[in-house]
């Protein structure tokens, strides 16, 4: 929990105590309660409009933050999960399958974090191995064949760096996804819902549009890794987060992403249903049929998007 959230919770608890005391003892404390409620409102507005990059990094990693499956079950209907890469085995760090966005069939591919330690171990903390990326590519090619749009949910610290992953071609699997997504003949939307780390995130982010939730982060590597390389001190993560420009607001300013999706006050975990509704409404605005009907033009725009992505700093 953020330090600022503790202050908000303490003030909220104080207001509830006064309300209960007022009801139980039949004492009129309405003026004091109103004063504290005004103070709470101003505190929330101040805190949530001035989050530091480190605060946003903390929010993006919170165990309470909604996972990809939380959104999938709320945004889409009739989701059917597919398993396996047809080469080695299934990778539970990546969830993929078919669902319906209202009445339109879509392919959904997502990096899935756990909601507790046991699930995180099962999901490998959303760090995919090569078979996860190959499963993703299999589903993308299937989507291309049946003319289904692809919607990706990105939430990973990065691709798994273990020896077994390297032995099975981790670098090649990520690179192939980048290449194939750039020429995939179906519309692609990628949404960074939490932590978008390194090539592990990029392997699901070559898209016609990249969106980020308001408090998500997106970076070339983790701030801890950056601090270890630059200063030989991983404890300087706060300084690294500020320098790296990892927030959605910074990245939008550099023309790397296309849209920032507003979160409920305090973050997506405060109201998952509302967050899912917002994501769904944004997806329904995408002209998928037009993008599909004019796929060569769509591919040209995708190519030019990545040729021009980013900004030079003077």
From TrEMBL:
Residues 35-289 form the CoA carboxyltransferase C-terminal domain. Component of the acetyl coenzyme A carboxylase (ACC) complex. First, biotin carboxylase catalyzes the carboxylation of biotin on its carrier protein (BCCP) and then the CO(2) group is transferred by the carboxyltransferase to acetyl-CoA to form malonyl-CoA. It is found in: Cytoplasm. Pathway: Lipid metabolism; malonyl-CoA biosynthesis; malonyl-CoA from acetyl-CoA: step 1/1. One of its GO terms (biological process) is malonyl-CoA biosynthetic process. The gene is accA. Belongs to the AccA family. Keywords: ATP-binding, Coiled coil, Cytoplasm, Fatty acid biosynthesis, Fatty acid metabolism, Ligase, Lipid biosynthesis, Lipid metabolism, Nucleotide-binding, Transferase. It comes from the Bacteria. GO terms for cellular component: acetyl-CoA carboxylase complex. Its EC number is 2.1.3.15. It catalyses: N(6)-carboxybiotinyl-L-lysyl-[protein] + acetyl-CoA = N(6)-biotinyl-L-lysyl-[protein] + malonyl-CoA. GO terms for molecular function: acetyl-CoA carboxylase activity; ATP binding; carboxyl- or carbamoyltransferase activity. It comes from Clostridium homopropionicum DSM 5847. Residues 1-46 form a coiled coil. This is Acetyl-coenzyme A carboxylase carboxyl transferase subunit alpha. Acetyl-CoA carboxylase is a heterohexamer composed of biotin carboxyl carrier protein (AccB), biotin carboxylase (AccC) and two subunits each of ACCase subunit alpha (AccA) and ACCase subunit beta (AccD).
